[in-house]
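Let us work through a complete example step by step.
Step 1: write down the sequence.
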Amino acid sequence: MSEKLKEMSVAAFVDLTASDAPAPGGGSVSALFGSLSAALAGMVANLTVGKKKYVEVEAEMREIAAAAEALKKELVEEIDRDSDSFNEFMAAMALPKDTDEQKAVRKAAMQDGLKSAAKVPCHVAETAARIFPLAKAVVERGNTNAVTDGLVAAMAARTAVIGAGLNVKINLSSIEDEDFVAEYSARVAALEEQAIAAEREIFALSEL
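Step 2: predict the structure and record it as tokens.
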């Protein structure tokens, strides 16, 4: 694929996702959800800055906007990294397997590819989880006219975390390194629990 996913139009990305191409898939889409979550949290913060009614939280909202922008950029990059890691595994699958030596090389490359394909969505989940404090702050203290955008940010962050976690899990099921599997299984479980609790806490702040 010559064109980067992050550079596609929304329509082109959606069409490619719907096609029979193996990527982008749930991992890249989870990264996209994360980037949109950060964008929404940043938007609410930006809509709060400069308003007399919110002068007491202006400094905080400026910091939130900057933090959200950094997370948004990082997660946009992960959209392509996720598909690249999947392609790494597919390239390993295509290696020759005529001799025992070739089979060993291919198997090792496939295991490395699976680990990459687990590491990337785990990083997506960890990065998306950092949005929850920002979403909570803008829902709690940001511009009330944009509170629903803050709530959608929380929902999108939860989807990003859990969706990316699912992609970690499916790759772990084929990885033979037991220590690696144990470590990443624990990380994903903790992130899922955090995401569910954080979304619930943020929604409790609103009367909607």
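Step 3: interpret the result. Helices lie at 10-18, 26-48, 58-93, 100-129, 132-141, 147-172, 178-203.
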